[in-house]
Amino acid sequence: MIEVQNLSKVYKMGNLEVNALADVSLTIKPGEMMAIMGPSGSGKSTFMNILGCLDKPTSGSYRLEGSEVSGLTDDRLAEVRNKKIGFVFQSYNLLPRTSALDNVELPMVYSGVKNRRQRARDALEKVGLSGRAKHTAHELSGGEQQRVAIARALAQEPALILADEPTGNLDTRTSHEIMAILQKLNQEDGITIILVTHERDIAEYTRRLVHFRDGRINNEETLEPGRTMANF
């Protein structure tokens, strides 16, 4: 699914250069569910932005499903994002006075997807919110809003979901419910999922944990078996 070789990212701030990533190499298999942890400034968010085609590396190679994407134009990167990648963020990024169904459907309007309404309904059903489709985002709990955000990502039928602190604004019980949904999507639908978290118990829903520090991969762990709601 993903092959990263000697990836580096340097930000220039006046005469100062900041090495956000330094010579990172990593392979992620199709259908894998993996977590990234690290302190603030470790490079994990920069790495996720590059994986999501939201940023370009200064040097190195990034291959997604066998295709080199690190040197693509902004328009081509946007096309890859729309076709292959779904995003789930800590802050949900929903329109507050728009229905859950319309929030899920909206990105498909911009990308010209056909049969948008049915795909949005199907995605909401997958996350257990078919009965809340007509409720506006501000009428939903935090956990329900995050489910809508996951459904929005799912409706695009991505091969890859990138989740940046998906449980960061949620209480403990709801956090584990959200992780159980992501875990189910990975195991039953085969979607590759990469998430950033600061919480070890959240990372344990995955099978692999990569630690970042000072822009480099500091350590990797294999987590077996992954945590489930049954052992929460």
Structure, described:
The model has no long low-confidence stretch (mean pLDDT 91). The protein has helices at 44-51, 74-84, 100-110, 116-126, 142-155, 172-189, 200-203; strands at 2-13, 16-28, 33-37, 59-64, 67-68, 85-89, 160-164, 192-196, 208-213, 216-222. It has a single domain (36-54, 78-231), classed as Rossmann fold, CATH 3.40.50.300. Helix 3 packs across helix 4 and helix 3 runs parallel beside helix 5. The longest helix has 18 residues, at 172-189. It is an alpha/beta fold and 232 residues long. A hairpin with a 2-residue loop joins strand 1 (2-13) and strand 2.
Feature tags:
232 residues; alpha/beta; Rossmann fold; six-stranded mixed β-sheet; 28% strand; globular
Rounded mean pLDDT score: 91
Low-confidence blocks of residues: none
* Major sheet: arrangement of strands: 6-7-8-3-9-10
Total count of domains: 1
**Cα distance spanning the termini:** 30 Å
Relative strand content: 25-35%
Q: In CATH, what is the homologous superfamily?
A: P-loop containing nucleotide triphosphate hydrolases
Structural class: alpha/beta
What shape does the CA trace take? globular
The second-level CATH architecture is 3-Layer(aba) Sandwich
The main sheet comes to: 6 strands, mixed
CATH class: Alpha Beta
Number of strands: 10
Radius of gyration from CA coordinates: 18 Å
Q: Provide the succession of SSEs.
A: EEEHEEHEHHHEHEHEE
CATH structural fold name: Rossmann fold
Q: How many H/I helices? A: 7
